[in-house]
Amino acid sequence: MHITNQSLIDKFIDFVNGISNENRVAVLHDSDADGLTSTIILEKALERMNKNIVFTSYEVVNKRKLEQQLFDKLIDNKVTHVFVLDIALDMDKKSIQNLCKFKSVIIDHHQNGDFNTIGILVIKPQLFTDIERYEKYCTVKLVYDLMSRLIKIDDLEWLAITGIVGDFSWQIWEEFVKKCFKKYNLEWDDYLYNTKFGYLCKLIEGANSIMKEDCVGFAKERIYNSNDIEEAINNLSRFKFVIEKTDYYIQNFKNLAKSYNDNKLWILEVNEPLSMNGAISTGISTGEDFFKDKFVLIVGEREDGRLRLSARCQDSSWDCNKIIKKCLEGLDGNGGGHIPAAGGNVSKEDYQEFKKRIIMEVM
Ligand SMILES: [Mn+2]
To answer: What is each CA distance from 117 to 91, 95, 112, 114, in whole angstroms?
Structure first.
Protein backbone atom coordinates (compact mmCIF):
# COMPACT_ATOMS: atom_id res chain seq x y z
CA MET A 1 0.00 0.00 0.00
CA HIS A 2 1.26 3.46 -0.91
CA ILE A 3 0.22 6.94 0.11
CA THR A 4 -1.11 8.65 -3.01
CA ASN A 5 -2.36 11.86 -1.43
CA GLN A 6 -0.04 13.15 1.29
CA SER A 7 -1.88 16.48 1.37
CA LEU A 8 -4.91 14.82 2.96
CA ILE A 9 -2.73 13.53 5.80
CA ASP A 10 -1.20 16.98 6.14
CA LYS A 11 -4.67 18.49 6.36
CA PHE A 12 -5.53 16.11 9.18
CA ILE A 13 -2.33 16.97 11.05
CA ASP A 14 -3.15 20.67 10.65
CA PHE A 15 -6.71 20.00 11.83
CA VAL A 16 -5.51 18.42 15.08
CA ASN A 17 -2.74 20.95 15.64
CA GLY A 18 -5.31 23.69 15.05
CA ILE A 19 -7.30 22.63 18.12
CA SER A 20 -6.42 25.11 20.87
CA ASN A 21 -6.61 24.47 24.61
CA GLU A 22 -9.84 26.49 24.80
CA ASN A 23 -11.50 24.52 21.99
CA ARG A 24 -14.05 21.85 22.87
CA VAL A 25 -13.90 18.51 21.12
CA ALA A 26 -16.71 15.99 20.52
CA VAL A 27 -16.35 12.43 19.23
CA LEU A 28 -19.29 10.70 17.52
CA HIS A 29 -18.60 7.03 16.95
CA ASP A 30 -19.78 3.54 16.13
CA SER A 31 -20.43 1.12 18.99
CA ASP A 32 -18.69 -1.97 17.59
CA ALA A 33 -15.12 -3.04 18.38
CA ASP A 34 -13.66 -0.88 15.58
CA GLY A 35 -15.72 2.13 16.66
CA LEU A 36 -14.98 1.82 20.37
CA THR A 37 -11.26 1.12 20.08
CA SER A 38 -10.72 3.92 17.56
CA THR A 39 -12.53 6.32 19.89
CA ILE A 40 -10.48 5.27 22.91
CA ILE A 41 -7.21 5.64 20.99
CA LEU A 42 -8.26 9.05 19.69
CA GLU A 43 -9.35 10.25 23.14
CA LYS A 44 -6.13 9.09 24.79
CA ALA A 45 -3.99 10.60 22.05
CA LEU A 46 -5.82 13.93 22.20
CA GLU A 47 -5.60 13.98 25.98
CA ARG A 48 -1.86 13.42 25.75
CA MET A 49 -1.80 16.49 23.51
CA ASN A 50 -3.77 18.44 26.15
CA LYS A 51 -6.85 18.80 23.98
CA ASN A 52 -10.17 19.22 25.70
CA ILE A 53 -12.73 16.46 24.96
CA VAL A 54 -16.13 17.50 26.29
CA PHE A 55 -18.55 15.11 24.63
CA THR A 56 -18.52 11.57 23.21
CA SER A 57 -21.52 9.66 21.94
CA TYR A 58 -22.53 6.65 19.89
CA GLU A 59 -26.08 7.96 19.42
CA VAL A 60 -25.49 8.15 15.67
CA VAL A 61 -25.31 4.37 15.47
CA ASN A 62 -28.99 3.62 14.96
CA LYS A 63 -29.93 6.05 12.24
CA ARG A 64 -26.45 6.84 10.93
CA LYS A 65 -27.45 10.50 10.83
CA LEU A 66 -26.58 13.57 12.86
CA GLU A 67 -30.09 14.56 13.85
CA GLN A 68 -31.32 17.76 15.44
CA GLN A 69 -31.43 16.34 18.97
CA LEU A 70 -27.78 15.37 18.92
CA PHE A 71 -26.84 18.57 17.11
CA ASP A 72 -28.47 20.53 19.97
CA LYS A 73 -26.39 18.59 22.49
CA LEU A 74 -23.23 19.58 20.63
CA ILE A 75 -24.34 23.21 20.74
CA ASP A 76 -25.26 22.97 24.45
CA ASN A 77 -21.78 21.62 25.14
CA LYS A 78 -20.23 24.51 23.19
CA VAL A 79 -18.44 22.05 20.94
CA THR A 80 -16.04 23.55 18.40
CA HIS A 81 -14.48 20.44 16.82
CA VAL A 82 -16.20 17.17 15.90
CA PHE A 83 -14.54 13.85 15.10
CA VAL A 84 -16.81 11.24 13.48
CA LEU A 85 -15.36 7.73 13.69
CA ASP A 86 -16.42 4.64 11.74
CA ILE A 87 -19.78 6.13 10.73
CA ALA A 88 -20.21 7.35 7.15
CA LEU A 89 -22.11 10.54 7.96
CA ASP A 90 -21.01 11.81 4.54
CA MET A 91 -23.80 9.60 3.12
CA ASP A 92 -26.42 11.94 4.54
CA LYS A 93 -26.92 15.49 3.29
CA LYS A 94 -28.45 16.91 6.47
CA SER A 95 -25.64 15.42 8.57
CA ILE A 96 -23.08 17.12 6.33
CA GLN A 97 -24.87 20.44 6.79
CA ASN A 98 -24.89 19.97 10.56
CA LEU A 99 -21.22 18.98 10.65
CA CYS A 100 -20.33 22.07 8.62
CA LYS A 101 -21.38 24.23 11.56
CA PHE A 102 -18.33 22.94 13.47
CA LYS A 103 -14.78 22.13 12.44
CA SER A 104 -15.39 18.49 11.56
CA VAL A 105 -13.48 15.45 10.39
CA ILE A 106 -14.93 12.08 9.37
CA ILE A 107 -12.54 9.12 9.65
CA ASP A 108 -14.12 6.10 8.07
CA HIS A 109 -13.59 3.14 5.73
CA HIS A 110 -17.01 2.78 4.13
CA GLN A 111 -17.70 3.77 0.54
CA ASN A 112 -17.80 7.43 -0.45
CA GLY A 113 -21.05 9.34 -0.05
CA ASP A 114 -22.77 10.98 -3.02
CA PHE A 115 -22.85 14.47 -1.56
CA ASN A 116 -20.49 17.39 -1.67
CA THR A 117 -18.50 17.42 1.56
CA ILE A 118 -16.81 20.79 1.13
CA GLY A 119 -16.39 22.24 4.59
CA ILE A 120 -15.65 18.92 6.29
CA LEU A 121 -12.44 16.92 6.24
CA VAL A 122 -13.18 13.38 5.05
CA ILE A 123 -10.47 10.77 5.63
CA LYS A 124 -11.10 7.47 3.88
CA PRO A 125 -8.41 5.02 2.72
CA GLN A 126 -9.57 5.31 -0.91
CA LEU A 127 -8.95 9.07 -0.78
CA PHE A 128 -5.27 8.95 0.15
CA THR A 129 -3.89 5.46 -0.57
CA ASP A 130 -3.85 3.00 -3.46
CA ILE A 131 -5.35 0.26 -1.28
CA GLU A 132 -7.72 -1.97 -3.24
CA ARG A 133 -9.93 -3.31 -0.44
CA TYR A 134 -10.34 -0.01 1.32
CA GLU A 135 -12.86 -1.44 3.78
CA LYS A 136 -10.00 -3.49 5.28
CA TYR A 137 -8.21 -0.31 6.33
CA CYS A 138 -10.53 -0.10 9.31
CA THR A 139 -11.11 3.04 11.35
CA VAL A 140 -8.98 2.02 14.32
CA LYS A 141 -5.96 1.46 12.07
CA LEU A 142 -6.57 4.81 10.37
CA VAL A 143 -6.77 6.56 13.74
CA TYR A 144 -3.73 4.70 15.05
CA ASP A 145 -1.64 5.50 11.96
CA LEU A 146 -2.74 9.14 11.84
CA MET A 147 -2.38 9.90 15.54
CA SER A 148 1.00 8.08 15.64
CA ARG A 149 2.27 10.91 13.45
CA LEU A 150 1.37 13.37 16.20
CA ILE A 151 2.11 11.67 19.51
CA LYS A 152 3.55 8.47 20.98
CA ILE A 153 0.77 5.90 21.34
CA ASP A 154 2.49 2.55 20.80
CA ASP A 155 1.27 1.39 24.22
CA LEU A 156 -2.22 1.39 22.66
CA GLU A 157 -1.36 -1.14 19.94
CA TRP A 158 -3.48 -3.79 21.63
CA LEU A 159 -6.54 -1.60 21.15
CA ALA A 160 -5.75 -1.20 17.46
CA ILE A 161 -5.47 -4.96 17.06
CA THR A 162 -8.78 -5.50 18.84
CA GLY A 163 -10.50 -3.21 16.33
CA ILE A 164 -8.73 -4.85 13.39
CA VAL A 165 -9.85 -8.29 14.56
CA GLY A 166 -13.38 -7.00 15.16
CA ASP A 167 -13.64 -5.83 11.56
CA PHE A 168 -11.97 -9.01 10.17
CA SER A 169 -9.21 -6.97 8.59
CA TRP A 170 -6.12 -8.72 9.92
CA GLN A 171 -5.04 -10.33 6.63
CA ILE A 172 -3.64 -7.08 5.28
CA TRP A 173 -2.12 -6.01 8.62
CA GLU A 174 -0.37 -9.28 9.39
CA GLU A 175 3.02 -7.71 9.98
CA PHE A 176 1.63 -5.15 12.41
CA VAL A 177 -0.45 -7.74 14.25
CA LYS A 178 2.34 -10.35 14.44
CA LYS A 179 4.76 -7.80 15.86
CA CYS A 180 2.30 -7.04 18.63
CA PHE A 181 1.68 -10.73 19.40
CA LYS A 182 5.43 -11.11 19.85
CA LYS A 183 5.63 -8.04 22.05
CA TYR A 184 2.91 -9.28 24.40
CA ASN A 185 4.07 -12.89 24.12
CA LEU A 186 0.69 -14.16 22.93
CA GLU A 187 -0.09 -17.40 21.15
CA TRP A 188 -0.71 -16.99 17.42
CA ASP A 189 -3.78 -18.39 15.65
CA ASP A 190 -4.39 -17.75 11.93
CA TYR A 191 -8.03 -17.24 12.78
CA LEU A 192 -7.53 -14.28 15.05
CA TYR A 193 -11.15 -14.25 16.08
CA ASN A 194 -10.24 -17.23 18.28
CA THR A 195 -7.58 -15.32 20.20
CA LYS A 196 -7.89 -13.03 23.21
CA PHE A 197 -8.46 -10.10 20.86
CA GLY A 198 -11.37 -11.94 19.29
CA TYR A 199 -12.70 -12.68 22.75
CA LEU A 200 -12.65 -9.00 23.67
CA CYS A 201 -14.51 -8.27 20.41
CA LYS A 202 -17.14 -10.82 21.40
CA LEU A 203 -17.53 -9.16 24.81
CA ILE A 204 -18.01 -5.81 23.05
CA GLU A 205 -20.63 -7.43 20.82
CA GLY A 206 -22.22 -8.77 24.01
CA ALA A 207 -22.42 -5.26 25.43
CA ASN A 208 -24.02 -4.11 22.18
CA SER A 209 -26.61 -6.85 22.28
CA ILE A 210 -28.11 -5.78 25.61
CA MET A 211 -30.66 -3.20 24.65
CA LYS A 212 -32.06 -2.03 27.99
CA GLU A 213 -29.16 -0.18 29.64
CA ASP A 214 -26.13 1.69 28.42
CA CYS A 215 -23.86 -1.33 28.35
CA VAL A 216 -21.80 0.07 25.48
CA GLY A 217 -20.96 3.13 27.57
CA PHE A 218 -20.02 0.86 30.45
CA ALA A 219 -17.83 -1.29 28.17
CA LYS A 220 -16.10 1.72 26.69
CA GLU A 221 -15.33 3.13 30.12
CA ARG A 222 -13.99 -0.22 31.31
CA ILE A 223 -11.76 -0.71 28.25
CA TYR A 224 -10.55 2.87 28.54
CA ASN A 225 -9.40 2.13 32.08
CA SER A 226 -7.66 -1.14 31.15
CA ASN A 227 -3.95 -1.29 30.53
CA ASP A 228 -3.86 -4.42 28.42
CA ILE A 229 -5.95 -7.08 26.75
CA GLU A 230 -6.13 -9.32 29.85
CA GLU A 231 -7.38 -6.52 32.03
CA ALA A 232 -9.95 -5.47 29.44
CA ILE A 233 -11.31 -9.02 29.21
CA ASN A 234 -11.61 -9.25 33.00
CA ASN A 235 -13.28 -5.87 33.18
CA LEU A 236 -15.95 -6.95 30.70
CA SER A 237 -16.69 -10.37 32.18
CA ARG A 238 -20.32 -9.52 32.88
CA PHE A 239 -21.02 -9.91 29.14
CA LYS A 240 -19.75 -13.51 29.00
CA PHE A 241 -23.26 -14.95 29.12
CA VAL A 242 -24.08 -13.34 25.77
CA ILE A 243 -21.13 -15.10 24.15
CA GLU A 244 -22.44 -18.42 25.48
CA LYS A 245 -25.88 -17.73 24.07
CA THR A 246 -24.48 -16.63 20.73
CA ASP A 247 -22.35 -19.77 20.57
CA TYR A 248 -25.49 -21.87 20.96
CA TYR A 249 -27.00 -20.30 17.84
CA ILE A 250 -23.75 -20.61 15.91
CA GLN A 251 -23.20 -24.25 16.85
CA ASN A 252 -26.80 -25.25 16.08
CA PHE A 253 -27.20 -22.94 13.11
CA LYS A 254 -27.93 -25.64 10.53
CA ASN A 255 -30.83 -26.94 12.62
CA LEU A 256 -32.19 -23.60 13.76
CA ALA A 257 -32.01 -21.74 10.42
CA LYS A 258 -34.04 -22.40 7.27
CA SER A 259 -32.29 -22.89 3.96
CA TYR A 260 -33.61 -21.97 0.52
CA ASN A 261 -32.61 -22.36 -3.13
CA ASP A 262 -30.23 -25.34 -2.88
CA ASN A 263 -28.73 -24.04 0.36
CA LYS A 264 -27.60 -20.79 -1.25
CA LEU A 265 -29.64 -18.78 1.22
CA TRP A 266 -29.90 -19.33 4.99
CA ILE A 267 -32.30 -17.35 7.16
CA LEU A 268 -32.30 -17.51 10.95
CA GLU A 269 -35.08 -15.76 12.84
CA VAL A 270 -33.99 -15.18 16.43
CA ASN A 271 -36.49 -14.58 19.19
CA GLU A 272 -34.46 -13.26 22.13
CA PRO A 273 -34.44 -10.10 24.23
CA LEU A 274 -30.80 -9.77 23.18
CA SER A 275 -29.71 -8.37 19.87
CA MET A 276 -27.17 -10.95 18.71
CA ASN A 277 -27.58 -10.60 14.95
CA GLY A 278 -24.15 -9.34 14.07
CA ALA A 279 -22.34 -11.78 16.33
CA ILE A 280 -24.22 -14.78 14.97
CA SER A 281 -23.92 -13.82 11.32
CA THR A 282 -20.23 -13.07 11.69
CA GLY A 283 -19.64 -16.34 13.53
CA ILE A 284 -21.43 -18.31 10.82
CA SER A 285 -19.96 -16.65 7.76
CA THR A 286 -16.38 -16.68 8.98
CA GLY A 287 -16.39 -20.03 10.75
CA GLU A 288 -17.31 -23.15 8.80
CA ASP A 289 -16.08 -23.18 5.17
CA PHE A 290 -19.50 -24.40 4.07
CA PHE A 291 -21.03 -20.98 4.62
CA LYS A 292 -18.29 -18.92 2.91
CA ASP A 293 -20.17 -18.54 -0.38
CA LYS A 294 -23.66 -18.65 1.13
CA PHE A 295 -25.92 -15.69 1.76
CA VAL A 296 -26.60 -15.74 5.51
CA LEU A 297 -29.37 -13.56 6.92
CA ILE A 298 -30.12 -13.16 10.62
CA VAL A 299 -33.37 -11.53 11.66
CA GLY A 300 -33.88 -10.32 15.23
CA GLU A 301 -36.09 -7.90 17.04
CA ARG A 302 -35.03 -4.38 17.94
CA GLU A 303 -35.86 -2.40 21.02
CA ASP A 304 -38.30 -0.28 19.01
CA GLY A 305 -40.19 -3.32 17.74
CA ARG A 306 -38.76 -3.23 14.22
CA LEU A 307 -36.77 -6.15 12.85
CA ARG A 308 -33.01 -5.98 12.63
CA LEU A 309 -31.36 -7.53 9.56
CA SER A 310 -27.77 -8.73 9.28
CA ALA A 311 -26.56 -10.21 6.01
CA ARG A 312 -23.20 -11.83 5.40
CA CYS A 313 -21.38 -13.49 2.54
CA GLN A 314 -17.74 -13.66 3.46
CA ASP A 315 -16.26 -14.49 0.04
CA SER A 316 -18.43 -11.85 -1.67
CA SER A 317 -20.20 -14.34 -3.99
CA TRP A 318 -23.27 -12.28 -3.19
CA ASP A 319 -23.31 -8.51 -2.87
CA CYS A 320 -25.01 -8.08 0.52
CA ASN A 321 -25.13 -4.29 0.26
CA LYS A 322 -26.87 -4.37 -3.13
CA ILE A 323 -29.25 -7.20 -2.30
CA ILE A 324 -30.39 -5.73 1.02
CA LYS A 325 -30.92 -2.31 -0.56
CA LYS A 326 -32.77 -3.76 -3.53
CA CYS A 327 -35.09 -5.96 -1.49
CA LEU A 328 -36.00 -3.10 0.87
CA GLU A 329 -36.87 -0.74 -1.97
CA GLY A 330 -40.25 0.89 -1.40
CA LEU A 331 -40.75 -0.91 1.91
CA ASP A 332 -40.75 0.56 5.40
CA GLY A 333 -37.09 -0.19 6.00
CA ASN A 334 -33.56 0.76 5.15
CA GLY A 335 -30.13 -0.74 5.10
CA GLY A 336 -26.80 -1.19 3.39
CA GLY A 337 -23.13 -1.72 4.12
CA HIS A 338 -20.34 -3.56 2.34
CA ILE A 339 -20.33 -6.35 -0.25
CA PRO A 340 -19.55 -9.11 2.30
CA ALA A 341 -21.57 -7.62 5.15
CA ALA A 342 -24.64 -5.44 5.31
CA GLY A 343 -27.31 -4.60 7.85
CA GLY A 344 -30.63 -2.90 8.03
CA ASN A 345 -34.07 -2.85 9.54
CA VAL A 346 -37.62 -3.37 8.39
CA SER A 347 -41.06 -3.02 9.95
CA LYS A 348 -42.78 -6.23 11.06
CA GLU A 349 -45.57 -5.50 8.55
CA ASP A 350 -43.17 -5.44 5.60
CA TYR A 351 -40.92 -8.28 6.69
CA GLN A 352 -42.78 -11.06 4.83
CA GLU A 353 -42.57 -9.11 1.56
CA PHE A 354 -38.87 -8.47 2.15
CA LYS A 355 -38.29 -12.16 2.85
CA LYS A 356 -40.13 -13.16 -0.34
CA ARG A 357 -37.89 -10.82 -2.33
CA ILE A 358 -34.70 -12.15 -0.72
CA ILE A 359 -35.71 -15.71 -1.62
CA MET A 360 -36.32 -14.59 -5.22
CA GLU A 361 -33.04 -12.67 -5.32
CA VAL A 362 -30.59 -15.18 -3.84
CA MET A 363 -31.04 -18.07 -6.23
MN1 LIG B 1 -15.35 -0.29 11.06
So the answer is: 10, 10, 10, 9
Q: What is the mean pLDDT of each run of 10 residues along the chain (363 residues)?
A: 96 98 97 97 98 96 90 98 95 93 96 88 96 95 98 97 95 93 89 92 92 91 97 97 93 96 96 86 82 94 90 93 97 93 95 98 96
What are the b/e assignments for 7-23, b being 16+ CB within 10 Å? ebbeebeebbeebeeee
Which of these CATH numbers, 3.40.50.300, 1.10.455.10, 3.30.390.50, 3.10.310.40, describes 253-361? 3.10.310.40
- Rounded to the nearest angstrom, the distance between the alpha carbon of 34 and the centre of ligand 1 is 5
* Strand segments (E) across the chain: 25-29, 53-57, 81-85, 103-107, 120-123, 258-260, 265-269, 295-301, 307-312, 333-337, 341-346
Whole-number Å distance, alpha carbon 105 to ligand 1 midpoint, is 16
Task: Give the Å distance between the CA of 288 and the centre of ligand 1.
Answer: 23
Asked if 200 and 192 touch (Cβ cutoff 8 Å), the reply is: no
Instruction: Report the amino acid identity of residue 86.
Output: D
- Give the Å distance between the CA of 159 and the centre of ligand 1: 13
Backbone φ, ψ for residue 271 (5° rounding): -120, 85
What are the residue ranges spanned by the domains of the chain? 6-182, 253-361
pLDDT given for residue 187 in this prediction:
87
CA 360 to centroid of ligand 1, rounded, Å: 30
Separation of CA 340 and ligand 1 centre (Å)? 13
pTM comes to 0.84
Residues 6+ apart with CB under 8 A from 262: none
Record: fold of 6-182: inorganic pyrophosphatase (n-terminal core) (3.90.1640)
How far apart are the CA of 224 and the centre of ligand 1, in A? 18
Going from the Cα of 139 to the center of ligand 1, the distance in angstroms, rounded, reads: 5
- Per-residue DSSP letter, 306: P
Please report the pLDDT score of residue 275 as a whole number.
85
